[in-house]
Amino acid sequence: MNPFTPLWPDGPLFAPAPNAALSTDSVLLADFVRIRGAVSGIDLGCASGAILLMLLSRGNHVRMTGIELLPDAAELAVHALERNGYSDRAEILCGDLREYRTLLPGRKFDFVVSNPPYYPPGTGAVSPNRIRADARSELSCTLEDLCLAASALCRTGGSFYLVHKPERLSEIFVTLNRNALEPKRLRTVCSRSGKPPSLILIEARKGGKPGLKIEPALILQTDSGEESEEYRRIYHRK
Predict the structure, then answer these.
(1) Whole-structure pTM over 0.70, yes or no?
(2) 95 in helix, strand or coil?
(3) DSSP one-letter code for 110
(4) Distance CA 35, CA 44 (A)
């Protein structure tokens, strides 16, 4: 088993699944999620539990559920919850999120979060490594599958948070709308000021009315190449 180390000084203990290091995408997404007033949340494709740990550490009022397809990653997530004393506020379900009716019959959550695979089948090279291939490409779960599950599991008025690639923004918005998820917040992520975005962070509301807020871009580095002040805040660096 991979060794457990703190996500940040005095932060939750975490061990990545083999061939699946903790990504900046997941860290930025967890920071983007608003949990104030929420009681329950679910991470679709939780891997070894990084986003769950980051959200659980922000307050003891939230209960979290994680769904993960790969047994080894799901087992690591269970151990991470145990190591951090979160087992009484979280559960891990090993299964296919497309089977949400069977895994979570009738369950509804205040918010849903997901760091999904970014690329449709047939685009780009597919890694021979199962974990890397599933993390990069929609081999086991398409964007439509994800939004359908998110809509079904989110209560009316609840939020769906995801991180994705900017080149798929139009398709993402169409797919969200088709599943009764109205985009409400959009934030681009740029390596430096003036550079095109490399990621997008989206909050959609189940049954929400039209009205999109575009937030200032999240800049990861200063012009001199140093970590930006906001990047350091997100990573709990002084």
Answers:
(1) yes
(2) coil
(3) E
(4) 16
Beta pairing, strands 13-14 & 5-6: antiparallel
State pLDDT tens for residues 209-230. Answer: 999 999 999 999 999 999 999 9
Helix (H, G, I), strand (E, B) or coil at 174: helix
CATH number of 5-180: 3.40.50.150
Residue 183 near residue 173 (C-beta atoms within 8 A): yes
Domain assignments of the chain as residue spans, ordered by start: 5-180
For residues 91-115, give the mean pLDDT: 97
Contacts 24+ apart (CB under 8 A), 16-20: 16/47, 16/48, 16/50, 16/76, 17/47, 17/48, 17/70, 17/72, 17/73, 17/76, 17/131, 18/72, 18/131, 19/129, 19/131, 19/132, 20/47, 20/48, 20/73, 20/131, 20/132, 20/135
Q: Check residue 33 and give its pLDDT.
A: 98
Report the candidate in 199, 131, 142 with the shortest Cα–Cα distance to residue 167. Answer: 199
